[in-house]
Amino acid sequence: MTESAGAHGGGRIVPRPRLFALLDDPRRRVTLVRAGPGWGKTTLVMSWSDTQPGPVAWLTVRREHRGPRELAGAVAEVLESVGVLIVDDCAEYEDKAVTLVIDNLQELDGAPSAGDLAAFVEKRRDWLRIVLAGRGEAGLPLHRLRAAGELTEIGAAELAFDADEASGVEESVLERTEGWPLGLRLAAEARDPREATRDYLLHEVVATQPPTVRRFLLRTCFPELICAELAAALTGETHGQQILEHLQRATGFVTRQPAGSRWFRYHHQLRDALCEQVEREEPDATAALHGLISRWYARERLISEALRHARLAGDWPYIGRLIAEQAIVMIMSERRNELVDTIRRIPEALLPTTAELSLCAGVLMWANGNQPALRDHIVRSRRQLTGRGPERRVAIDVALDLFEAGAVVRNGGDMPRLVAVTTRALERLRPARLDQVPTLLQFRAFALSNKGVGLLWTDTLDHADQYLWAGMTAARSAGVQLVEINAQGYLGLLAYLQGSLGEAEEHAAAGEVLARDLHMESTPQAAMSHLVIALVEVERGRTAEAQSALRRALHTDMNPPETITSMLAALVRIQLLLSAADPVAARALLETTREQAPPALAAPRLDRWLRLTEGDVALALHEPDRVVAMYRLGETALRPAEQVCLGRAYLALGDHAAAEELLVRAGNSPDMVAAVTAWIALALLAEAQGHVGRSVDAMSRARALARRNGIRGPFRRFDPARVAALAGRQRWLEEEDGRGPDLFEASAATEAVALTEALSERERDILRFLPTVLTANEIADNLGISVNTVKAHMRSIYRKLGAARRREAVVRARRQGLL
């Protein structure tokens, strides 16, 4: 497919129905076909004119028509040739409609005759249709026709060939030429299409511009997008916006991206031609221009573009500063491979030369999974900062802190140190300004989130909750998606550890959805969401779904694998083995997991989890003595799940008093999984003591809590025959006395225990707000704590009062004199 550009007949003419339809529009009597050279304006109008039923008068404007009398005479002559006689500026025509084509309109720019032509065009003659074609508007006041809806405009965007019109043309050629008709023709016919295209554009587009515009084009061709502000930085030209808009109107090779924005884009082939011209005429200017572009993009926080042009400038020390001050946050985004690729291009000999380039070397070691070398580069970078003033080093100090926190400390599992390093980073960021630390908001989100992770594993759950929420919110505002995904996963883990499966699932699912939407499901930061889903599915009794979530976690790109994430994946596998009634394999895997833990691992909450898992395995293997040896009845700091584990051990050993004390405490805790397990164990204990009513009430409460929270796993931890018998007896008794299962009321004995268990000081603070109309969010604001903490305490209050909802808790608290 080719189209002759500018002359009728120099190639095959391709019918263009969509453009003919615009030219035929009966509602508009004037059509402007305006574009730069080679867009096929003349060819289009000529091929269309052949389809017209009436006569077509054609005037190609030349230099001699710039005078009013000369132009008027030329117009009269071409109209007379089709039977229209103009006398004293009046014309009558009673035959078919006449079309007047005035081509090469740009010749009238600034000419005296342009005003007369404008008056002629604006006269409404029902029998006359006017088509104006050229590279500009020749100063004609066409705005009135536009406002009246009487002007059809066909520009380069419409003249460009689309895929249907360019059938048979390779997709790459159509993309490169952007449908430019002459470009397509040259691609098909020229011996050297690239050279032919370049020569044409430089002579017909660039050389025809005024000297100021030519220099503007040559200085602004290297960025993929250009705006007036960037152009000013490259040219010193203060009228960049007007120049770009002029080029857009007059050439068709400059377009606004997108429409209405400040950005413009040069046609691919024009940009290539300009860049080659600069590199040929001013080779020394190329690097300098790329350097200016990079620094402008850096000021605008457009990091990817800043890095790309700094690389093209070959300014490696500046790249080091740019990465340390801004681009390091790309590690926590979908652009991390772009960052690593840039660093790989830095000459190896330069990497040890500055603190910033040493940090870059550390990032390279991180990408390669070389932890020992990574630590060495961080140490060297800090040493190279010696003597640098505080103002000049705050950004890289924080960058080193947070890189070490994420890549070394957290990866190795030293959670107390993670808290210390992120705390130091937050202290450094507190007085910092954005001009000192351009990525202050991103750094803060990363530090808050990682401090929350450290606090969770150091078993400071309330503070962990606050920092994880703050980190997630800050990450969302700063656009650091991987930090947000990871924070969601850890908030889910926190809720799971507190026994709230619904909240755990909600956070983890949100993390998975965000990762999927951003195509980041396989990133290490998404692994925690997958693992939490697996843990929740185990407690819901859905083994297949749990295994699927575990596989998603194991298939993330962890290189090297994060210690705690790997150990948590092993704990999920152990839970699945216990669900499959294979405690021997579970114990073997638990022992292997402990043996493989690195020496640097320091995570008290993980230690407790491993010990609790060991207790679950021991109970499954009928070794209650081993559990008692691990825990002691007098340990007041036992968490609900640990109370249940030890209570079940005492139950198996026949120590009913000790078992009941622990199980009742756990049964009235906010940990729903522990509570369900405790009430099942209390049902078995009451049955062993011969208390049928208490046994039925306990099983009723266990089933009610389980139904309300979607919990099934605990029922599998006991003898299935005994659990089934108790459940069957409960249903029989309920049918005998004509009542359905009371989901919220315990027996009188257990209710008394619930009502007399003391509330903590924080729970009493929150209890005071329950009779009000304040929401959980508003209570949190009043107390200066997170909403998640308020909800956890509210669940605890409900359990201790034996209430199912807020109003019921208020009533019971008043009966007990607590309000």
TrEMBL record:
Stated name of the protein: LuxR C-terminal-related transcriptional regulator
Domain annotation HTH luxR-type: ranges: 752-817
A Pfam family annotated for this UniProt entry: GerE
Keywords linked to the UniProt accession: DNA-binding, Transcription, Transcription regulation
Coiled-coil parts of chain: none
InterPro entries: Sig_transdc_resp-reg_C-effctor (IPR016032), TPR-like_helical_dom_sf (IPR011990), Tscrpt_reg_LuxR_C (IPR000792), WH-like_DNA-bd_sf (IPR036388), WHD_MalT (IPR059106)
Superkingdom of the organism of origin: Bacteria
PANTHER family reported for this sequence: DNA-BINDING TRANSCRIPTIONAL ACTIVATOR DEVR_DOSR, HTH LUXR-TYPE DOMAIN-CONTAINING PROTEIN
